[in-house]
Amino acid sequence: MNVLLTRLDRVGDLILSTPAIASVRRSWPQARITLACSSYNAVVVERNADVDSVLVVPAGRAPDAFGERFRGACDLAIALAPCMPDFRLVGATRAPVRIGYTYVRRYFVRMTAARYLTKLAISQADPELSERHPERVVRHEVEQVLDLVRLAGGQELASDLVIPIDDVDRRAVAHVPAGGIAFHLGLRWFHEGSTLESTLELLRQLRRYGFPLIVTYGVDALEQAAAVRAAGVADAVVGGVSFYQWAAVFEKSRLVVTVDTGATHVASATRRPTVVVFEHRYFNLSSQEWSPYRVPSVRLRKPVDDEPAGLAALRASVLAAVGELLDVKALAKQA
2-151 and 167-334 share one CATH topology? Predict the structure, then answer.
């Protein structure tokens, strides 16, 4: 049996798909499993033992053309992303069973999906409906993607997120203090309900808990990381590391604070309690579908603007959430 899985979108979403990938392996242990992904998210699965091969779809390459290489050589194809490029790639394989999912109000996709897929699952996720009806329950993306394995006939399901960190990664970050608060410096800390100045003040206030403060960052926050270094508000500012070394920093930390869902899912994969601050817009959907998965967590909402009162309230909420997850009262008793 030959199985093709595709996920061409973001790093965090591919992390959330690792339980489904493991479930395919458990359900069809003798199958040859190929995963098609993008150059952007391939790092997530380059060590994944549940796939036999990882193929990167070149930037600018039409997914249909890429999928044609599997025509006549694929028994099952699953689009793990609810996106048309994945549908097109899976459709081009002409596998006997082609599966994907889309959101409830993507009506055009629902009407045209039969061109590409033999089975289509419908997710109840919808940002506008969730804003109008805050009580509306949306299942986590992990569960939605696992539905695709069930739809394909899979019966042996896994639930853990998979990021294989090894001892080489751990040694590479041995200089980073252990047992601290890891704070990921995503760009969303610096606009629309948060600012650089407010973030620096938050970092200063987080030091009250007495644990090492480790700030991580990627290439999108080089200038802001320099500002953090200059302000002297962190015990370590960690950038320029590999994906797995970044995960190893989270693994050795006490908890993670972030505004970035990619960092949220890395934290969940390393079993770290997480405080995540979601954007004000579409909070009701985002805080359910992309929340920390199977770890203690607090989900917060950004203020609607950058007014001082709202920024102060957000900082206070983050501090309280960190205290809750650290269980400050219990720590004080132990001391």
Answer: yes
| Residues whose CB falls within 8 Å of the CB of residue 114, separated by 6 or more in sequence, listed in order | 120
User: What are the two backbone dihedrals, phi and then psi, of residue 99, each rounded to the nearest 5 degrees?
Assistant: -125, 145
Cα torsion angle, 222, 225, 229, 230, sign: positive
Rounded to whole angstroms, the Cα distance separating 170 from 168 reads 5
Average pLDDT estimate for 133-156:
96
Q: From CA 231, how far away is CA 124, in angstroms rounded?
A: 45
Residue 56 near residue 38, CB atoms below 8 Å: yes
Our CA angle for 157, 142, 131, nearest 5°, is 150
Task: Over range 296-316, report the average pLDDT.
Answer: 97
Q: Is the dihedral of CA 36, 41, 43, 47 positive or negative?
A: negative
CA distance 22 to 156: 9
How many residues are given for the chain?
335
Amino acid code (one letter) for 319: L
pLDDT tens track for 83-94:
999 999 999 999
Answer whether CATH 3.40.50.2000 is correct for domain 167-334.
Answer: yes
Question: Can you name the residues that pair with 54 across neighbouring β-strands?
Answer: 35
Local structure of residue 95 (DSSP, 8 states)? -
Please report the DSSP string for 218-247 in residue order: -GGGHHHHHHHHHHT--SEEE-S--HHHHH
| Percent of the chain whose pLDDT exceeds 90 | 96
- Which whole number is the average pLDDT over 176-197? 96
Neighbour-count burial for 126-154, b at 16+ CB within 10 Å, e otherwise = bbebbeeeeeeebebbbbbbbbbbebbeb
Phi first, then psi: give them for residue 123, nearest 5 degrees: -90, 140
| Extended strands (E) in 2-48 | 2-7, 32-38
Q: In the chain, what are the domain boundaries?
A: 2-151, 167-334
Fold (topology level) of 2-151: Rossmann fold (3.40.50)
Angle, CA 283 vertex, CA 280 and CA 285 arms, to 5°: 155
